[in-house]
Amino acid sequence: MLGAPVWSSVRQGLSRGLSRNMGGWASGEGRKVDITGIYPPVTTPFTATAEVDYGKLEENLHKLSTFPFRGAVGGICALANVLGAQVCQLERLCRTGQWEDAQKLQHRLIEPNTAVTRRFGIPGLKKTMDWFGYYGGPCRAPLQELSPAEEEALRTDFTSNGWL
């Protein structure tokens, strides 16, 4: 983690750079900042009951769509360990503007992705890797293997979406 002296130095450098390079930036005069290639993080907003706040997410995405950003970067790609071709297909569909097909595929990936990240975590990912012919291996301490009931619930998450 960067300490206060480093951040202070960065902040001073940025403010000098803006005042020197941007002219009357605060008043709207001077050159415009080219921020293409800079990708903003998009976080998922939640309600007080821990549900995804889709209204707020849509509002945030609408605001971001007015900014001159291009593309996206990053992700938690645990699901790609077992459904790699499908995750890559989702990216291809998005790149080629096939939004309806991308949305259908994304909806089929949500439940299994939640299962191997948030719901069952590493033990769930290891179990699904075994199912798909990869080596997931045993869990290391302090993690525990899935119980039979958890394993059945995990299997349901994949079969109900047509992956097993």
Automatic annotation (TrEMBL):
Query: Which controlled-vocabulary keywords does the entry list?
Result: Lyase
CDD domains, A to Z = DHDPS-like
Database matches in Pfam families: DHDPS (PF00701)
The UniProt entry, under Gene3D superfamilies, shows: Aldolase class I (3.20.20.70)
In which domain of life is the source organism classified?
Eukaryota
Q: Which GO molecular function annotations are given, in alphabetical order?
A: oxo-acid-lyase activity
Q: PANTHER family of this UniProt entry? A: 4-HYDROXY-2-OXOGLUTARATE ALDOLASE, MITOCHONDRIAL, DIHYDRODIPICOLINATE SYNTHASE
- Subunit notes for this chain? Homotetramer.
Name of the protein described by the UniProt record: 4-hydroxy-2-oxoglutarate aldolase 1
Q: What is the species of this protein?
A: Equus caballus
The lineage is: Eukaryota, Metazoa, Chordata, Craniata, Vertebrata
